[in-house]
Amino acid sequence: MFRARLTYAIVWTLAVAFSGLLVSLASRLVEERRLSALESAKARAAFAADNAETSVNRFLLGIDVLLSSVDPVRDRPGLALKELARSHLAVRDLVIADADGNVLASAMPVTERLGLRLPDGLFASLLQGSSPTLGISQSVESFATSEPVIYFARQLGHGPDAQLVSLAVVPMVHVVASLGAPQEGFTFMLERHDGELIVAAPQHGVPTSSWFSRAPDKAVPDGAADQARSPVEGKRAIVASRALVHPGLRVAVSVPQEKALESWLVYRRNVFVSATFLGLLVLAGAALVHWTLRRMHLSNHEIGSAKQWLDQAISSVAEGILLCDARDRVVAWNDRYLGFYPWLKTVIRPGIPHEHLIRLSVRHLCASETDEQREALVRQRLAVQAHPGGQFEHHVSEDLIVQVTESRTPAGGTVSVFRDITATERELEAARRAEQMARSANQHFITSIRDELHDGALSLVGLLDRVRCVQPAIIQPSILDLIHCQAQQVVSGITDLHELHRLQSGVVQVKREPIDIASLIRQAAKHAEQLARVLSVRLDVVCMPSLPRRVVSDSGLLAQLVYSVLRAAVGAAPSGTNLRAVFCHEVGADAMGQPQLLLEMHCKGTDDANKLIHALKEGSKGTGRTSTALRLARRLAQTLGGEVVVIAHRDAAAFPKVISMSMRPEAFHADSTELAA
Fold first, then answer.
1. How many CB atoms are located within 10 Å of the residue 490 CB?
2. Is 577 inside a domain boundary?
3. Are 554 and 640 in contact (CB under 8 A)?
4. Which residues are CB-contacts of 11 (< 8 A; sequence separation ≥ 6)?
5. What DSSP character marks residue 672?
6. What backbone torsions phi and psi does residue 545 show, to the nearest 5 degrees?
7. Count of C-beta atoms within a 10 Å radius of residue 289
8. What CA–CA distances, in Å, run from 239 to 23, 41, 218?
9. Alpha-carbon distance 628 to 499, whole Å?
């Protein structure tokens, strides 16, 4: 007992000592940071004062030079004053006035009519001096422009004109701009040597006359920043001032001490909060240690070995494990279980009711459902748990499907095993989709064959009826040719459907072999010309001289592509149509700059071209032999790296283009020849 109390005393002594050390360290850090913040603010204020001095000196010297260049004899008519006023962007008006403030000449005629409202005593100090100096007034509202302005005055020469003064009217915004770029928290001020404020930036929403008067801190401003009274609110601030080139003027920069210490206040709050939190954490840790040590004397010997064995057993299982006692309270679990339900990490503990975990899971997974729907799901899950011994699947998310197997222990508890079956379900779903697609493709193929056979059979029946009506001795050979052509069309249609099905199924392998392209075109065009003669369509096949002698591609697919395009055009063309198929070779025809083999179908006459294009467009949407041939041609062209396009627009040529086919073979041979159709 004595040893336990001694241990508790040591723990609490260390906790209190550490908390006191934290308080001392935090106070020291806060004070050092405050001094550092003040020094940083002083350096920034001194730097801003240096920059403001340079900018204001440059501005005042420009005004002074402008006023000294005024000639009272030359400029009194006012014409030259306008030119001088335009030479300085900040000057609104340039005026020559006498000692009483009467305007003698000005750059703006309105100033001569309305006059000037000059501050008292502006000319007195200028006319009494032994040498001309620059005088600056307080801000007043201009009669001419109704805006705040500042007057800059200078005595003109000596002798007869010694009582004349040149006056520059400058809007206050330009004077404010000369103080430099605005900085957050900084106030720039143009003052006289006695502390009288002329202008400040920013204005802080109050007129200059209502600002606090401030006695000069130093007789000779040296630019060093010191703590002084702020002219804005009368509070403590950091002020740096520098004398200007013109006597009696200086520029000052002020930053409120609260603004300078703003970051320090945040730092101080964070340090004190952190120190307090750490102190409380230490005390809480000490309390936790006290409680833990007390409990350890009672429980370590009883549950140590059993708990270790149980944890090792369930942690070694690859599936998620959740053990509950006879009253459905959680006894143990493993990390795999929390991997399936990560939102339970913060709430799960030994002894918590399993129903509470179920409600938390339902609330997390079914957040968009109503309370009644979530309660129904909880009751459904509890009903399953009341009769364990089976399996069910739990769709945790789109990417996770868990199979749950529950069983009873001899003591009445429940052992729940959670197994990830997402991959298995995906494989089964993929197999079902593949089977469905294959079944759909086969069904479509069979339906298409039925349609083809039906149309061909109807055509043959009609032709046989015509033959039956004619005497056998005088049967025309053209009718027999037509019967033969229709039968051949039926066979070609079935073949096209079969090849289209093979291409869509992906079982066709493209071969790479050298091909005599001219011979292949002539062979494919021969069958198309036979069909064209029976259908009373004229078909001319032309091979351009640029056509290469050989290409590397699949000869069977390429021949079937050429024949399908020609057959689709001939089958859709009205009787009496004149078609021309032109085969050529172009370099850099596609977007990648690769050579292409091109086929262009032309139709003579605009009316026939319109009818043919309309038939091809309708064939692309519907069924029948023309539609099958066109779909097969497009599929073959896509397999060979090309495309077949029905031209939507017609030109005004004698032979408008109706179909364009492009194909990019693997390679072209350089030698070419002139080939005739």
1. 18
2. yes
3. yes
4. 286, 289, 290, 293
5. B
6. -60, -25
7. 16
8. 34, 10, 11
9. 10
- Residue 120, Cβ density class (10 Å: 0-12 exposed, 13-18 middle, ≥19 buried): exposed
DSSP string, 22-88: HHHHHHHHHHHHHHHHHHHHHHHHHHHHHHHHHHHHHHHHHHHHHHHT--TTTSTTSHHHHHHHHTS
What confidence score (pLDDT) does residue 671 get? 42
Here the tokens at position 537 are: 């369509």
Q: Residue 369: its pLDDT value, please? A: 84
- If asked whether residues 430 and 413 sit together in one domain, one would say no
To which residue do tokens 């991997």 refer? 339
Q: Which residue has the tokens 């497009």?
A: 634
- Which residue among 154, 176, 198 closes a domain? 176
Which of 508, 525, 543 is the C-terminal boundary of a domain?
A: 508
Q: What is the pLDDT of residue 593?
A: 44
Q: What share of the chain is helix, strand, coil (3-state, %, to 5)?
A: 50, 20, 30
Which of 555, 569, 544 has its CA nearest to residue 660? Answer: 569
Residue 404 C-alpha from the chain's centroid: 42
* 425 and 356 fall within a common domain: no
Q: Count CB neighbours of 81 within 10 A.
A: 24
Tokens for 350, please give them. 């030994």
Instruction: Give the model's pLDDT for residue 291.
Output: 87
Query: What is the C-alpha separation between 487 and 468, in angstroms, rounded?
Result: 18
Which among 542, 660, 543 has a CA at the least distance from the CA of 600?
660
pLDDT means per 10 residues, the chain with 677 residues, are 76 87 89 87 86 88 86 66 81 82 81 77 67 80 78 73 78 84 80 81 58 55 74 75 84 83 87 88 88 78 73 80 87 86 88 88 85 85 74 79 84 86 79 76 64 60 58 56 63 66 68 83 81 79 80 82 81 80 68 60 73 72 65 78 71 66 56 36
CB neighbours of residue 278 within 10 Å? 15
CATH number of the domain where residue 408 is located: 3.30.450
Surface-to-core class of residue 367, CB atoms within 10 Å of its CB (0-12 exposed, 13-18 middle, 19+ buried): exposed
Q: What are the Cα distances from residue 562, in Å, to 428, 599, 632? A: 42, 8, 11
> Which pairing describes strands 538-543 and 578-586: parallel, antiparallel, or unpaired?
parallel
What pLDDT is attached to residue 487? 61
Q: Tell me the Ramachandran region of residue 634: left when phi exceeds 0, alpha when psi lies from -120 to 50, beta otherwise.
A: alpha
49/37 Cα distance (integer angstroms): 18
Structure tokens at 96: 């020559």
- The reply to whether 405 and 471 lie within a common domain is no
Answer whether 134's CB lies under 8 Å from 123's CB.
no
Choose among 242, 233, 239: nearest CA to 254: 239
Is 309 contained in some domain?
no
Domain that holds residue 576: 511-668
Measured at the CA of 98, the angle between CA 95 and CA 100, to 5 degrees, comes to 120
**Length reported for the chain:** 677
Locus of tokens 């086919």: 661
Q: In whole angstroms, how far apart are CA 293 and each of 3, 287, 508?
A: 11, 10, 77
Q: What global pTM score does this model have?
A: 0.39
Q: Indicate whether 494 and 638 sit together in one domain.
A: no
Residue 122 CA to residue 516 CA, distance in Å, equals 105
Amino acid at 320: G
For the chain, the domain total comes to: 4
